[in-house]
């Protein structure tokens, strides 16, 4: 989704730029009806600032049909009565179209991004497997071939700017000698779609427990079922046991841990687990090279900031290149969009937002998991401040929404 989003933003902000997108997997048939399962599908929380970016690209009307709006976010700490709530009507400066954000299933978001690319001049090469990459004085040279093609059928692509939009453990980053800094949380994110007895009414729940945060995010109703996306932070040894439980036993354990704020949980889809760690690339730009997506920064899922931070990075990179093209003409220097000064200017603009977002995702979970009386008092004071201080609450909401820039 990072690569497709960046390609769309480049097409929008730099229409004269020639852009190629190499995607390893085959793309969905754009003529096929977008049919989504009721359960067993991952979802992404899109913050208000990200919705603004998609709206500027003209994508929001298509996305809205598959999105569940977030009208309120309830934050609670298990074992304590104090909590905080962010409301779209109250936090209007941190909302978009009357919502704090929206939740969209990845099975819809991905195909809709690629359908939008068909209306641009972006050259989409898929399925394409990248082999070697070499940096040159003029940019980068990639060897690639169509998936399943013979080695002799390799093709060469020359580019003045190579953007690696891979996941963690990127083979291209390893080839380029880009080191990463990692913190293993020794936890798993347990992900599932659950059914609720009552309508969630657009409320997203963030609940902190001894093992870590739990999120229950609204999803569109489907097949007559009220649905929500569950992200449950578990200790390393617990998630396999939980995932292997029969559905009724799993629901009972989930209900006991989460509580009754969302009402009765009546169904649970297939449970999947993802190891949690913080992974940061030690370099995000070089001459002729930029990194976006999980290979640049992979975060703890608390508050669902990973993809939103990536989208703001992509928007910043496209706008930086667009401004340079407008100021210098389409042929703006020998290195073009790969000019080091240009990429460093982009990085300086993005550094503050990245530091705040990454720091929040790294420090908040252990703060709420701690049993220390001192830290318990501090986090209760923080929730009380959010509940009672409009200025503090508004600033927090704007940062979470990606609008405090």
TrEMBL record:
Pathway: Cofactor biosynthesis; ubiquinone biosynthesis. Keywords: FAD, Flavoprotein, Monooxygenase, Oxidoreductase. It holds the Pfam family FAD_binding_3. Its cofactor is FAD. SUPFAM superfamilies: FAD/NAD(P)-binding domain (SSF51905). Residues 2-331 form the FAD-binding domain. InterPro entries: FAD-bd (IPR002938), FAD/NAD-bd_sf (IPR036188), UbiH/COQ6 (IPR010971), UbiH/COQ6_monooxygenase (IPR051205). Belongs to the UbiH/COQ6 family. This is 2-octaprenyl-3-methyl-6-methoxy-1,4-benzoquinol hydroxylase.
């Amino acid at each position: 989704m990072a690569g497709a989003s960046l390609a769309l933003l480049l097409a929008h902000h730099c229409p004269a730029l020639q852009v190629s997108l190499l995607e390893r997997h085959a793309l969905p048939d754009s003529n096929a009806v977008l049919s989504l399962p009721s359960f067993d599908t991952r979802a992404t929380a899109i913050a208000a600032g990200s919705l603004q970016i998609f709206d500027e690209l003209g994508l929001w009307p298509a996305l809205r049909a598959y999105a569940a709006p977030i009208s309120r976010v309830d934050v609670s700490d298990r074992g304590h009565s104090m909590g905080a709530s962010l409301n779209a009507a109250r936090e209007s400066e941190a909302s978009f179209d009357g919502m704090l954000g929206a939740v969209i299933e990845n099975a819809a978001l991905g195909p809709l991004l690629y359908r939008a690319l068909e209306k641009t001049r972006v050259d989409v090469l898929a399925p394409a497997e990248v082999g070697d990459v070499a940096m040159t004085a003029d940019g980068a040279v990639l060897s690639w071939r169509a998936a399943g093609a013979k080695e002799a059928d390799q093709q060469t692509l020359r580019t003045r700017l190579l953007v690696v939009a891979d996941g963690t453990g990127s083979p291209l980053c390893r080839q380029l000698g880009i080191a990463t800094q990692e913190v293993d949380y020794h936890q798993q994110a347990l992900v599932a779609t659950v059914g609720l007895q009552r309508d969630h009414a657009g409320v997203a729940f963030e609940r902190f427990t001894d093992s870590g945060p739990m999120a229950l995010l609204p999803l569109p109703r489907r097949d007559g079922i009220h649905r929500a996306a569950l992200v449950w932070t578990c200790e390393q040894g617990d998630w396999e046991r939980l995932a292997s439980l029969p559905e009724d036993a799993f629901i009972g354990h989930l209900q006991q841990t989460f509580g009754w704020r969302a009402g009765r949980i009546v169904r649970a889809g297939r449970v999947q687990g993802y190891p949690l760690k913080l992974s940061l690339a030690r370099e995000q730009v070089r001459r002729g090279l930029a990194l976006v997506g999980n290979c640049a920064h992979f975060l703890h899922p608390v508050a669902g900031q990973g993809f939103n931070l990536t989208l703001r990075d992509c928007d910043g990179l496209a706008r930086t290149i667009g401004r340079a093209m407008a100021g210098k003409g389409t042929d703006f220097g020998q290195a073009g969009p790969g000019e080091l000064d240009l990429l460093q200017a982009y990085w300086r603009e993005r550094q503050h937002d990245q530091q705040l977002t990454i720091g929040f995702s790294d420090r908040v979970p252990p703060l709420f998991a701690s049993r220390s009386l001192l830290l318990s008092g501090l986090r209760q004071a923080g929730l009380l401040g959010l509940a009672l201080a409009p200025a503090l609450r508004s600033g927090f909401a704007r940062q979470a929404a990606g609008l405090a820039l």
